[in-house]
Design a protein that fits this description.
With 321 residues, the chain is mainly alpha-helical. It has 11 helices and no strands.
Length: 321
């Protein structure tokens, strides 16, 4: 098959630039990906300077004392809040991904789109897309969780002086790292299959298992274009992530150096860096949302070029409405 990568990549940019409502869905889709790859932790305020307790301000000492007195209540509240945000992130991330798939499809059909309409049209596909994600990720969670649990058990027993457990722990390490190295390429392949399966669900109104089977057929029949498109989009994501990270590094590194040079006594540099990072965060969400929208649009156009003739788009879209 003669696959035109330049046409797909340029058309994806034209679509998200013309239909900026897709940026919002890109921001939503980024929720389930954890946003950008930035690490917002300055990593330098652990109090381990000079082997003693740092000279903290009185207000901070009072705050730590309050945390110690109410640790149980705070832990319950924090856990509940994390669970709520986790559920919300999964829901919004899934809807965002569906909206990008369907929005790109509608753009190719020459239709206008509005946020409310696209959001409501995405809702019927939520459980199927979520079920697909759960189906493919659960085996990885079980395998990795089992390996980590086994390593922890052997390691804890070995720390208590058990020679057999120490031998078992050492024997488990090569197996553990071997499995992790094997899971990486397997995960990459499954991710490319899932990309196609998601579009089968949304654009062909398919169920989860048939969509997964069809996604595998599409991947197997078009290995070259799909793998190369995946590499191209991966490189683009690295470049975008690096660009997003540059201002953070410019802010955090000098602040951390100033904090360490001051003997961990002057917190003003870290407070200033944190304030700047908070102000910069909304911009990173927007940039990351645009990048996610571009990637999902490119994958949808890849699916269209591999599977469906463009002449049939309006008829199929009307049938799935």
């Amino acid at each position: 098959m003669n696959f035109n990568f330049g046409e797909v990549l340029s058309r994806a940019w034209q679509i998200i630039w013309k239909h900026k409502v897709l940026w919002i869905f890109g921001i939503l889709a980024g929720c389930s990906r954890g946003g950008s790859s930035l690490n917002w932790n300055s990593g330098s305020s652990d109090g381990g300077f000079g082997g003693g307790t740092p000279n903290l301000p009185p207000q901070m000492l009072e705050f730590f004392a309050f945390l110690a007195e109410n640790i149980v209540s705070i832990a319950v509240i924090v856990t509940a809040v994390i669970c709520i945000f986790w559920i919300l992130a999964i829901f919004l991330g899934t809807i965002g991904k569906i909206g990008l798939i369907r929005g790109t499809w509608q753009a190719e059909a020459g239709e206008n789109m509005f946020f409310g309409q696209l959001f409501s049209q995405s809702l019927p596909y939520f459980w199927r897309i979520f079920g697909l994600s759960l189906l493919v990720s659960l085996p990885f969670v079980i395998v990795i969780g089992g390996l980590i649990a086994s390593a922890l058990v052997f390691g804890a027993a070995a720390s208590l002086g058990s020679d057999e457990s120490a031998i078992g722990f050492l024997a488990l390490l090569p197996f553990f790292f071997g499995c992790m190295c094997l899971l990486l390429p397997v995960g990459i392949v499954i991710n490319m299959i899932v990309r196609q399966s998601e579009r089968v669900i949304v654009l062909e109104d398919s169920r989860v298992l048939p969509a997964l089977s069809r996604g595998w057929d599409i991947f197997r029949s078009n290995l070259g274009p799909i793998i190369l498109m995946s590499l191209i989009l991966w490189v683009i994501s690295l470049v975008v992530g690096f660009i997003i990270a540059i201002p953070i590094l410019i802010i955090v590194l000098p602040a951390t150096i100033a904090f360490v040079a001051g003997g961990a006594e002057n917190w003003n540099p870290l407070i200033f860096a944190f304030a700047c990072a908070c102000l910069y965060a909304p911009l990173t969400w927007v940039i990351n949302g645009i990048a996610v929208a571009y990637a999902e649009s490119a994958w949808t156009l890849t699916y269209i070029q591999l599977v469906r003739p463009l002449d049939n788009l309006p008829a199929v879209l009307e049938a799935n409405a």
